[in-house]
Predict the structure.
Amino acid sequence: MTMKRLHNFSAGPGALPVSVLEEARQEMLVYGEAGASIMEISHRSPEYTAVTDSARQQLATLLGLGDEWHILFLQGGASLQFYQSALNFLQRNETADYVNTGSWSTKAIAEARRVGNVHVAASSADDNFSHIPPVSSWQHSSSPAYIHITSNNTIFGTAFQEDPVSVPAPVICDASSDFLSRPVELAPYSMIYAGAQKNIGPAGVTVVLIRKSFLERVQGDLPTMLDYRVHAEKLFNTPPVFAVYMVEKVLRWIAGKGGLLGMQAHNEAKADLLYSRIDKTDFYRGTAEKGSRSKMNVTFRLPSEDLESTFVSEARKHGLLALKGHRSVGGIRASIYNACELASVEALVDFMTEFERKNG
Ligand SMILES: Cc1ncc(COP(=O)(O)O)c(C=O)c1O
């Protein structure tokens, strides 16, 4: 029996492009001339080397990354990057500045504190992370080693609308939930990291981009697997081959959709449609301030918690999957990453209108 694929609003792992899944299915038993699947051959084989080279090439082309960047495919999720970035770039007697815009930033801060001093340059904790503090309002420490931001806040549905320019230190950005969803001005950033499982592939690989000049700051003897210099120099250990293989396919899919400009147009069309439905009446209430709204994770409330749980269960019956908000926020969250189709958002908006008609 073939089960039907539903409209998927999962916050992560999120929807993947159907054409990519189909291509992987075609190759599941035998990859090219390899005589085995990609999962069953050496990570040093010509076949896998071509996959990983192509993934790097695609990333470089999509983002305009020149030779001055290292492109690493690491494991341990974005969560390990919270610690690893601090371990590499923060000395015990130094201070790093963090902008706290949600649960993931809070976790990044906790991990960095294991390594050195953390100064919170700005925070929106006081209003339950419903906005992004403007760059001009940040209060920096005297000589920060770096500044860490979270470009999109998956749980609270907020996102930076401006790049951190004119700040006093290199910027490290956790871009896990909006990576490759739009063009990025790279100049303000020294390092960008993102777990793949929202916008660019399955769980298992974290893309880490580091400027070569920034990497030169790393000092001393670090645990081998946590030392970026090791991974920048060579393929040190077995990478997550299947995840990288899937990422390579998703990157080609993005290129075929018009690259990052194409993704931006596609993502803005979905977000505009959904936010205008939310704003149309008072029945639905967006939780993020309008000037900080995420185009990836759209969070909203209904008039009561009872109605919210009915909404989620009724939506499921209408083929709309994974709309329950994160437990720390409640309400509804629709994650509309790159692979979420406009038709899915149209189906959600139709359902919202019908639900309001019955319950409003
Ligand atoms: C913005 C952000 N950072 C970090 C993480 C943690 O990622 P991982 O589960 O890959 O460690 C997530 C996961 O949802 C996230 O959304």
